[in-house]
Amino acid sequence: MNYASPNLFSGMYLSIVIPITLVIWVLYFIDRILLNKISYKVIILSEIGLALLLFLILSYQNSKTTIRFETNKSYVLVIFDSDKTSSITFQKKGLFNKELIIKDTNLIYLNSSYEYKNELKIETPKNWIRTTTDQNTFTKDGKNVGYIFVTNSELPKSYLINNEKYIDSLLQVNAIK
Fold first, then answer.
1. How far is CA 81 from the centre of its chain?
2. Any bridge partners for residue 144, and if so which?
3. Separation between Cα atoms, residue 97 and residue 166, nearest integer Å
4. Would the pTM of this model clear 0.70, i.e. be above it?
5. Mean pLDDT, to the nearest integer, of 23-49?
6. In angstroms, rounded to a whole number, what is the distance separating the alpha carbons of residues 113 and 124?
């Protein structure tokens, strides 16, 4: 591999390797200086503690809340208007992840605080090949209610024309059942 050639990839290699090498050398010199002043056991325990803290921070930042649907219907609907005392509880999965498995239904009501969670993930049934998702709001009893609508095909034309009426009709159909 020729790093001096004037192509794009040689510059990318150098822009990655040089900063990493400099950081390693700086950390090595700091380690050598600290070894002269502090006992080896304290340095090792500090490094292990720092690594554990970094692991916890990264795990928390990458945590997610997953709702997995297992249904035969062609759509799923998550509505964010449940009261604070909802009986739905998420199961812990891993250190900071949470998961909720919904079987045999395609409609779920969640607390409105979940609407604004960036890490909320909707997992559709495994037999769905292609999905279309829309996150929006509709008016219910004079207040705006958020929802996520996921279908295993393209969004229906009637939904695109008036999504509020379409969602209301889905809620009425589910209420009749």
1. 21
2. 139
3. 33
4. no
5. 90
6. 21
